[in-house]
Amino acid sequence: MPLFIKYYYCVVTAANPRRGASVEESEEKLKRVGSVSRARRARALLGVAALSATVALSACGSSDDDGAATSASTTSGGGGAPVEVRFASWVPNIRNAVELFNREHRDIHVTLEEMTAGPDGGYAKLLSAVRAGNAPDVAQVGYDQLPAFLIAGALEDVTEYAADDESKFIPWQWRQGVFGDKVYAIPQASGPMAFYYRKDLFQRWGVEPPRTWDDFAAAADRIKARGASIVTFPPTQAPFFMGLAQQAGQQWFTPESDAWKVTVDNPDTQRMAAYWQGLLDRRAVATMPDMSTEWYKALQTGRVVGWIGASWGDALLRQGAPRTAGKWAVADMPQWQAGGDVVSASWGGGSASAILRGTKNAEAATEFAVWLNSNLDSVNLLLTDGYGWPAVADPRQVTGLQDDPTVFKFYGGQNIWEVFARADAGVDVDWAWPPTSGELYASVTDELKKAVEGGSLPEAVRAVQSQAVAQLKAKNLSVAGE
Q1: How far apart are CA 244 and CA 286, in angstroms?
Q2: How many Å apart are CA 247 and CA 13, to the nearest integer?
Q3: Domain locations in the chain?
Q4: Distance set, CA 141 to CA 61, 87, 218, 407, 450 (Å)
Q5: How far is it, in rounded angstroms, from Cα 346 to Cα 312?
Q6: Mean pLDDT across the stretch 362-389?
Q7: DSSP state letters, 22-90
Q8: What's the pLDDT score for residue 384?
Q9: Read out DSSP for 112-171?
Q10: Is the Cβ–Cβ distance between 365 and 85 less than 8 Å?
């Protein structure tokens, strides 16, 4: 029986004397975390769930056949063959950093395995590989997906190897891989969002980069009159829509006692949905999928002249629209209220280097993950290759944020990282990701497609609300008010 199925079967149906003790322990732990932030409480709640999973699995007779960890982590250290570590990632050209690590380390050798990004990409394969016992040692996993991986029993506890590395990273990013005081993943980067735009065409048409969403709507209408679209509204991109909702204000998921409170259908998200529905109704934005061949062609030909994207998106533009070099610029994400500090969002939260359950080399895998994401030479390479906003504790130490000719030249000499620094500071770091992100993304995508094909975004939000509740219940997780 697969590990995650066995977990839910045991938690719900097993009658064993240890189950009651684990519930009492869980309740006590939840009381102790009652005063911390929502996101930290969510992670504590998930940590308790993972602990309960371990207890339930033990009571049901878990064994190595179920994919449980049997880590015999070692490093060679004695002049023998290096420890082999397999690493799966989707970051373009991350091979450069991996090769640097291999040159500088004789006791560990890392083999890179390329994977497809996103919930429809490599995550399902990773989970299947964990269950089959042949998963990579380390894999790039989005912050939004870590809770689901934890509940599925797919993460390895590496607290003993990583606990002393916390100070190397931005606190909120470090906490993304910590559940119930146990470390399962090393932070890699976040994805603060901003507005990429074709500066040459904006200037030619007399359009100012929009400061507010009202400005954005006006600019969209003026650009439409020129036969172009200011951006595309991609119906296949759930993280984009959720980023818009995050910036709009109210959160979608919050831990409440020992349950999840689901508020997808809230006034702030509905205001955002109605706004974008207005743009769709008057065809002021395109609806093609972003990151597609059609989209890149539209960017190069000027049919689409902007993108509300994440910091890692700069590499996508450089690689996908090379003939537009020097014509782009980046501005703050449009604001709902003029003045004040910049409010932004993080596309999918960001991503981590997660150590997967069943690794025989947890210590070496953790050493590599920490080095990859904190060594400044590595971080500079990754920044140019488009991995996001660094997770290192002091980004000012990253020289590429002050001087990166490869990036700055494409954006007409602009230091775009100054914009993303403001964006990163304007992200709600208490936004909580549920342990059902995969199912949630599928629901959002399905409903966005319906909206674009003749429905409406406000209706889509209401539909996702009911589906999100059902998805949590399907995993035997409590929903507040239900």
Answers
A1: 17
A2: 41
A3: 3-59, 71-188+347-414, 191-345+430-474
A4: 29, 11, 38, 25, 28
A5: 11
A6: 93
A7: HHHHHHHHHHHTTTS-HHHHHHHHHHHHHHHHHHHHHHTT--GGGT----------SSSSPEEEEEEE-
A8: 84
A9: EEE---STTTTHHHHHHHHHHT---SEEEEETTTHHHHHHTT-B---HHHHGGGGGGB-H
A10: yes
Q: How far is CA 260 from CA 227, 413, 472, 475, in A?
A: 46, 46, 8, 12
pLDDT in tens, 205-246: 999 999 999 999 999 999 999 999 999 999 999 999 999 999
Answer left, alpha or beta for residue 181, where phi above 0 means left and psi between -120 and 50 means alpha: left
Percentage helix, strand, coil, to 5, in the chain?
A: 50, 15, 35
**What percent of the chain stands above pLDDT 90?**
72
User: C-alpha dihedral over 6, 8, 12, 14, to 10 degrees?
Assistant: 20
DSSP bridge pairs for 195:
308, 331
DSSP string across 457-469: HHHHHHHHHHHHH
How many angstroms from the chain centroid is the CA of residue 91? 13
The model's confidence at residue 27, banded by pLDDT at 50, 70 and 90, is very low
Between these two residues, 130 and 44, which has the higher pLDDT value?
130
* Higher pLDDT among residues 12 and 53, named by residue: 53
Please check whether residue 155 is in contact with residue 7, taking contact to mean a CB–CB distance below 8 angstroms: no
How many angstroms separate the CA atoms of 49 and 43, rounded? 10
b/e per residue 309-327 (b: at least 16 CB within 10 A)? bbbbbbbbbbebbeebeeb
d(CA 364, CA 378): 17
For every residue of 225-249, DSSP letters joined together read HTT-BS-B--TT-HHHHHHHHHHHS
Helix 437-452 to helix 238-248 angle (10° resolution) is 90
- Token code pair at residue 471: 């998805």
- In angstroms, the CA 330 to CA 434 distance is 31
SS3 328: strand
Q: 192: which strand partners? A: 346
Domains 71-188+347-414 and 191-345+430-474 share a fold: yes
- The residue assigned the tokens 């002249």 is 305
pTM above 0.85, yes or no: no
CB under 8 Å to 166, separation ≥6 — which residues?
Answer: 174
Across the chain, what does the average pLDDT equal? 86
pLDDT of residue 42: 60
CA 463, 465, 469, 475 torsion-angle sign: positive
The CATH number fitting domain 191-345+430-474, selected from 3.30.2010.10, 3.40.50.300, 3.30.450.20, 3.40.190.10 = 3.40.190.10
CATH of domain 71-188+347-414: 3.40.190.10
- Average of per-residue pLDDT across 181-208: 97
